[in-house]
Amino acid sequence: MMPAETSRFLDGIVRIRAVQEFAPSEALGFIFQLKDVVRKVLAKAPQHPAAANELDVFDSAVDDLALFAFDLYMQCREKIYDIKAKEARSLTFRLLQKAQIITENQE
Fold first, then answer.
1. pTM: predicted TM-score of the whole model, two decimal places
2. Residue 18: which of 76, 67, 71, 79 has the closest Cα?
3. How far apart are CA 36 and CA 20, in angstroms?
4. How many angstroms separate the CA atoms of 96 and 90, rounded?
5. DSSP letter string, the chain
């Protein structure tokens, strides 16, 4: 589980990217880019003996974050598909009613 504050911020970003119909790799790729950004910053700084171990811990945390973000993305996409399916059923029902093929009692 992600800390509440992390999940709140990530949820907002992922929801927007899910609605914009990005592919999962495009929507969540920015998370993996964090590893490259941190490595570039650390390349300019003096190296500490424990840095490699800390970098492994960071990489693992980023991977966990990406998995959590993927779960959020898929939940959002599922909700979007559910909404679209309900709209399609409702539209079909209204069209059948209008064509007098079905009445409200025949649902």
1. 0.78
2. 76
3. 25
4. 10
5. ---HHHHHHHHHHHHHHHHTT--HHHHHHHHHHHHHHHHHHHHHSPP-TTHHHHHHHHHHHHHHHHHHHHHHHHHHHHHHHHHHHHHHHHHHHHHHHHTTS--GGG-
- At 57, list the tokens: 């811990």
Cα-Cα-Cα-Cα torsion 71, 75, 81, 87, nearest 10 degrees, comes to -170
Instruction: Decide if 28 contacts 14 (C-beta within 8 A).
Output: yes
Q: Which two tokens stand for residue 34?
A: 């964090």
pLDDT at 104: 66
